Amino acid sequence: MMRRDIHLKPKDLLNSLQFKEGDFGKVALVSGQQQRAKMCLQKLENPVKNFTFLGYTFWTGFYRDKKVTVGNGGFYAPDSAFVTELLCVGGIDALIRLGSCGALREDISIGDYILATHIIRGDGATRYYVKDDFKNSVSDNLSSKLQAIFEPLGKIHRGGVWTTDALFRETKDIVNSYIERGAIAVDMVTSPFVTVANLYGKKAAAILAVSDNLITGSLGFADFRFFEAEMKMADVIFNIVDAM
User: Fold this and answer.
1) In 3D, which of 112, 88, 98 has the Cα closest to residue 190?
2) CA gap 151, 60 in Å, rounded
3) HSE on the CB side for 174, CA within 13 Å?
4) What angle, rounded to 10 degrees, do the helices at 224-236 and 140-150 form?
5) Running DSSP on this structure, what letter comes out for residue 169?
6) DSSP SS3 for 158
7) Bridge partners for 157 per DSSP
8) Can you list the domains of the chain with their CATH numbers?
């Protein structure tokens, strides 16, 4: 039988990756897709790779003399949970997610943006961290800054984001039940991202580009409007660093 309280702590893993205190900046721009992270990387001066682990890579450099960390932080709830925990333990104070999502309203188009105002937990990973009645919260301050930055780019919709683990089980009954709870978008990441950040007392916010629409049935994964929204996202997100 296992005698230790826990097998592996985030600090232990960071130490094994040769990470040192102060290697991260205080702000992290966290993408799911690696290409989004690399777009952000191009904005940094003198970037240094912090670590690569299981395909997740983070760099820290400078943007207008401010130290910023960027990287790809997970595709799904489980990997997003442990990567977010590494960032929090590593000294990040503000975490901003650059993600993608499916829309849950007919009037939301491919390439629009969703600004998460609250997160509805439908994932399994966060149940290992908190009880089912735990209420996570995004940072109002960061969210207000994101809204001001993204409004000039196109349509931005504010509302609840539901996180699920099961892409091919987004059935009518399940989807409608979360719409009734206030969700206007669905993804597979934001719940653990925000929940873990909350547990560590860190600020977190999420801006998501719309890749598909569950109400109209539109699929925009290969749509130029979606790619353009991603490119614009990476181009303007550093404005939030200036605003902090």
Assistant:
1) 98
2) 28
3) 16
4) 120
5) G
6) strand
7) 114
8) 23-242 (3.40.50.1580)
> Residue 106 in contact with residue 37, Cβ under 8 Å?
no
**CA gap 53, 50 in Å, rounded:** 10
Cβ 70 vs Cβ 44: under 8 Å: yes
pLDDT tens digits, one per residue of 136-149: 999 999 999 999 99
Structure tokens at 161: 């984001």
Q: Which residues of the chain have pLDDT under 70?
A: none
Q: For the stretch 215-235, what's the b/e string if a residue is b when 16 or more beta carbons lie within 10 angstroms of its beta carbon?
A: eeebebeebebbbebbebbbe
DSSP letter string, 53-69: ETTEEEEEEEETTEEEE
pTM greater than 0.85 (yes/no): yes
Residue 139, helix vs strand vs coil: coil
Cβ proximity of 240 and 146 under 8 Å: yes
